[in-house]
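Record passed on underneath.
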Amino acid sequence: MVTDTFFAVRKSDGRIIGIIDLRHTLNEFLKDLGNCGYSVRPSERKKGYATEMLRQLIQAAKEAEMKELHISVEKENAASIKVIQKNGGVYERSFSFEGETADIYKIEL
């Protein structure tokens, strides 16, 4: 399985702002976790970094000739849901994992 990991680095000071992964394929276990995961440093949240990170990851996925991305998010994570929706994510389904409910969003590429 191929996974690319990217670090978001702020140009002005070289500080690492976040990290994002792109999983090119999904096995049975990953089908509920999706093609990507991301995190932004807590002190840098709510500044648009996650939205831009996902936008750039979508471009990388297109260049890798992927057709769609599936992204899971916990139902309570309103900020991440907004990031996904701003990048064209559409609710697909819900699932439970270790007693927690999460949603899968799909982004057509």
Notes: The longest helix spans residues 49-63.
